[in-house]
Specification:
By secondary structure, the protein is mainly alpha-helical. It has a single domain, classed as Amino acid/polyamine transporter I. It contains 20 helices and four strands. The two termini are 37 Å apart.
């Protein structure tokens, strides 16, 4: 089974997927006239109030929930895993994927908000599945092919949420805690179930409220900790950056031959972990962004695109520099990898790197992993629940949430690094229908972005009513 999953993962994350994602990122960057240059404005807008506009939660709440789902184990263990598999050059390609992914994040959120709907209780729903259902409708009928793509996205997303958002995060959280404290995995699993279940069952408002308070604190504390480590590693920062850039374009052995670095491997694993980190093109963040209060689609899309900047361009890059510089400063880490290359995992590398920093290294890792993992469990639960509601109606949400939380317990007591493979595969399968619908509707995005963003009409209210759909 492991061999099969490894083969399948290499296929779905092969050259075709890399070309699809990076190609889409670059295409949408040009299509939106380099929307990345509006990043300072977008960051400023994310701190403003949008009360009075139609939506269920504030746009900062939507951004915080999306960041809660993206700044997870991929920001620490995922970076270490990419370096193990693709060498230091993988960090460079993660960063590139993050820069260009900002445009994709903007476009996919724009599409989700433009085609969002309401249920009969007034709750706002959105995402790639509704874009497929409404974006190509003629004479009040959705083409069969579009409906099939909507169902496939929702199905893949609901399944990926269980792996990416529940099992992976619980496993990483438990592994970090048990490696540093004498606590039973079963006890940790029960704690995860209780702490996450109480918030998840409270609905989108509960999830948003917790994430609004938790995400800024955890991100700032982690970045401050990484900055301190970089000061400690100051003599190795230059060589680390050199290795990251050179290994991205040159096939060479890194860290004394302990880690191989091929261009294709660096590109493949860098892009894969970059997507896992910022989720640009995945279609997950638009699900929560669609519920935000916003005067028009462009405003929330600008706010949402800052998520790709914070998660990958900032947090993942900091982690990558910390890992590479610490490995250069401590050759014994590379010796440990060389001694057991088949069993050395990304989690082991992250633990070894942070343990080298006296006093603060391990606490930074533990607090970062626990808070990041917990917030990701909350964020992805909303994504999965919304997709299940699309497929089966509200009657399917509570059973799904119970399964979601139960899988977190199973992840805490026994799911290993193999679950990364399952999550990678699920991410790729849900990304495909999302990218296709965004590209197909990119002309509308470009035209309306020109009107709202570049022609100075960002304060203009969107004049289309949000339609009400029939309940299942």
């Amino acid at each position: 089974m492991i061999d099969f999953l490894t083969s399948l993962d290499s296929i779905v994350w092969g050259p075709a997927m890399i070309c699809l994602l990076l190609g889409s990122h670059i295409f949408l960057t040009f299509r939106t006239h380099f929307i990345q240059r509006k990043l300072p404005l977008a960051i400023k807008m994310s701190m403003s109030d949008e009360s009075g506009a139609e939506g269920d939660i504030t746009h900062f709440g939507a951004l915080s929930t999306a960041l809660a789902a993206t700044i997870g184990t991929g920001s620490i263990v995922g970076v270490a895993t990419a370096i193990l598999a693709g060498g230091p050059g993988a960090v460079f390609w993660m960063w590139v994927a993050g820069i260009f992914g900002i445009a994709t994040k903007y476009a996919e959120v724009y599409v989700a908000i433009k085609y969002r709907v309401k249920d009969h209780n007034g709750e706002i729903l959105g995402g790639a599945m509704y874009a497929w259902e409404r974006g190509f409708r003629t004479n009040e009928r959705t083409p069969r092919a579009a409906h099939v793509m909507a169902v496939l996205f929702a199905l893949f997303a609901a399944l990926a949420a269980i792996g990416t958002g529940s099992a992976v995060q619980a496993s990483a959280m438990t592994g970090t805690i048990t490696a540093n404290f004498d606590v039973s995995p079963q006890i940790i699993g029960v704690a995860i179930v209780v702490l996450s279940g109480v918030v998840i069952l409270g609905g989108v408002q509960s999830i948003s409220n917790v994430c609004e308070k938790l995400v800024p604190i955890m991100a700032l504390c982690y970045c401050a900790g990484c900055a301190i480590i970089m000061v400690v590693n100051a003599p190795y920062l230059g060589p680390a950056l050199y290795e990251i850039v050179v290994c991205a374009f040159t096939p060479r052995a890194a860290f004394g031959g302990a880690v191989g670095s091929g261009i294709l491997a660096a590109l493949q694993f860098g892009c894969a972990r970059g997507l896992f980190s910022n989720e640009a093109g995945l279609g997950s963040a638009p699900i929560i962004a669609a519920a935000a209060q916003t005067k028009n689609p462009a405003r929330q899309s600008l706010v949402a695109m800052t998520g790709a900047f914070w998660s990958t361009v900032v947090v993942c890059l900091l982690t990558g520099i910390v890992v590479v510089s610490t490995m250069l400063a401590n050759p014994d880490i590379a010796a440990s990898i060389a001694a057991s290359p088949d069993t050395y995992s990304g989690a082991m590398l992250a633990a070894a790197v942070f343990a080298k920093i006296p006093y603060i290294g391990t606490p930074i890792l533990v607090l970062g992993m626990v808070s990041f993992s917990y917030s990701t469990i909350l964020g992805w639960s909303y994504y999965g629940s919304r997709c299940v509601a699309f497929l089966f109606g509200k009657r399917g949400v509570l059973p799904y949430q119970i399964v979601y939380v139960a899988v977190a317990f199973l992840g805490a007591i026994g799911v290993g690094d193999t679950v990364w493979l399952v999550s990678d595969i699920g991410n790729a399968l849900m990304a495909i229908p999302n990218i296709i619908v965004v590209l197909a509707l990119s002309g509308i995005v470009a035209r309306e972005t020109k009107h709202y963003v570049y022609d100075g009409n960002l304060d203009e209210a969107y004049d289309a009513d949000i339609p009400v759909i029939a309940s299942k």
